[in-house]
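Translate sequence into structure tokens.
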Amino acid sequence: MQVVVPVRGVLEIEVGGRGGRVEQARVACIAPGTGHDQGADGDNRFLLLNCPVELLGEGRMEQLRQRPFLPTGPRLQRLAAYLDRRCPDREPVPEPLLQHCLPGL
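Result follows.
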């Protein structure tokens, strides 16, 4: 599962035929094998978290496949800002940090 988390800006994205936006308090979840297309203008930055299925569980994975756009709270927004500082050069986010992200979904 890929989770697109906003750091700044707005991303217009279609996931599995459903259109939506990734912005300050909203993420997009892209299940394996799901088609997607996106575009953004201006100053923007997003984190792409690659979450192994076993961290989410099959049940939650299916929920996110059916409803790919989710609101988020301040906890995930603060964590995104931290990860952006921690992994500035497109480095993969370490799995222990991913585990802290998942309760926010």
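Note: The chain is about 30% helix and 35% strand.
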